[in-house]
């Protein structure tokens, strides 16, 4: 198990690109000019407290993106808290009924399907590069503007803006949560939408690619990076170029933009998303934050945490 005291000042491996802030400021400016148009399709849903809808929007690159939206049954003249939910790698927004409890507690819930994964959102990223093992590398060979996760991060910002725009949502009380990839998207969303009030990020993925690679990523969630080198660049002639490109979607560099209050949860035995990689981003957060580290647990269900944090989103 790693010693947290030895990593309390660790802020990541690799360099932040000189144009990093401009890169994301430009992307957000382009998104801001794009209409927030969306479609709502109510579904048959048996609940005493909630209504449920398919929410669809079109991203600036033309992809049709889906989210689940659940609201209290009566919204006229009322303002509710907003809750964004993001799912794990390859998954989807989950079961509708799992959100009923949050709705009953006064939330409007928006759960995004990450494009091209297990849900209904489509991905139209065009690439000639290798994509066999995963999505970090999708679009990577064409450079930072074609990265798959650039688009996903912007989708997260887009759904946050839609949620905030509903007249029955209090835009000053927006919260976000997720685990693994969902934790990463929670962090990215808070970085790109500073109006978000509080987040809970559980063992977030997509932090410190160079460190993950150096730790031996073949058995972790970052396995696609060494796989790419093995079959696309076995002599590592493009190593610096590749890691520089990935740095644009590295959460260690986005973390300082966060204004939200953050609770970060991780298992100290995590071999899927190593704690060292997570700390690169956590230690770069300058807003109010709290780290909950479970010594005996890994990338798995973390007991008692939900009870510990009950009432945090208020």
Automatic annotation (TrEMBL):
<dbReference type="Pfam" id="PF05448">
    <property type="entry name" value="AXE1"/>
</dbReference>
<feature type="domain" description="Acetyl xylan esterase">
    <location>
        <begin position="3"/>
        <end position="307"/>
    </location>
</feature>
<dbReference type="GO" id="GO:0052689">
    <property type="term" value="F:carboxylic ester hydrolase activity"/>
</dbReference>
<feature type="active site" description="Nucleophile">
    <location>
        <position position="180"/>
    </location>
</feature>
<dbReference type="InterPro" id="IPR029058">
    <property type="entry name" value="AB_hydrolase_fold"/>
</dbReference>
<feature type="binding site">
    <location>
        <position position="89"/>
    </location>
    <ligand>
        <name>substrate</name>
    </ligand>
</feature>
<feature type="active site" description="Charge relay system">
    <location>
        <position position="299"/>
    </location>
</feature>
<protein>
    <submittedName>
        <fullName>Cephalosporin-C deacetylase</fullName>
    </submittedName>
</protein>
<dbReference type="GO" id="GO:0005976">
    <property type="term" value="P:polysaccharide metabolic process"/>
</dbReference>
<dbReference type="InterPro" id="IPR039069">
    <property type="entry name" value="CE7"/>
</dbReference>
<dbReference type="InterPro" id="IPR008391">
    <property type="entry name" value="AXE1_dom"/>
</dbReference>
<feature type="active site" description="Charge relay system">
    <location>
        <position position="270"/>
    </location>
</feature>
């Amino acid at each position: 198990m790693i010693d947290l005291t030895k990593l309390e000042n660790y802020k990541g491996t690799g360099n932040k690109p000189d144009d990093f802030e401009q890169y994301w400021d430009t992307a957000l400016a382009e998104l801001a000019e794009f209409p927030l148009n969306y479609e709502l399709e109510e579904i048959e849903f048996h609940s005493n407290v909630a209504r449920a809808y398919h929410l669809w929007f079109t991203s600036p690159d033309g992809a049709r993106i889906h989210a689940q939206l659940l609201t209290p049954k009566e919204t006229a003249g009322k303002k509710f808290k907003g809750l964004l939910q993001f799912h794990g790698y390859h998954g989807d927004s989950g079961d509708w009924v799992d959100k009923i409890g949050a709705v009953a507690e006064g939330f409007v819930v928006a759960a995004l399907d990450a494009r091209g994964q297990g849900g209904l959102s489509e991905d139209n990223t065009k690439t000639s590069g290798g994509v066999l093992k995963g999505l970090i590398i999708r679009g990577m060979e064409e450079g930072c503007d074609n990265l798959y996760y650039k688009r996903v991060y912007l989708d997260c910002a887009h759904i946050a803006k839609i949620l905030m725009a509903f007249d029955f949502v209090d835009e000053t009380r927006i919260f976000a949560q997720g685990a693994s990839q969902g934790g990463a998207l929670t962090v990215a969303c808070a970085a790109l939408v500073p109006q978000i009030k509080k987040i809970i990020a559980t063992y977030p993925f997509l932090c410190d690619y160079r460190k993950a690679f150096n730790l031996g990523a073949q058995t972790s969630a970052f396995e696609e990076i060494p796989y790419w080198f093995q079959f696309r660049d076995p002599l590592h002639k493009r190593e610096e170029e590749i890691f520089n490109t990935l740095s644009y979607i590295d959460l260690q560099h986005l973390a300082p933009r966060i204004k939200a209050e953050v609770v970060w949860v991780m298992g100290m035995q995590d071999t899927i998303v190593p704690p060292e990689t997570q700390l690169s981003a956590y230690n770069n957060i300058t807003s109010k934050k709290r780290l909950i580290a479970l010594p005996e647990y890994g990338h798995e269900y973390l007991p008692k945490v939900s009870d510990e944090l009950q009432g945090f989103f208020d």
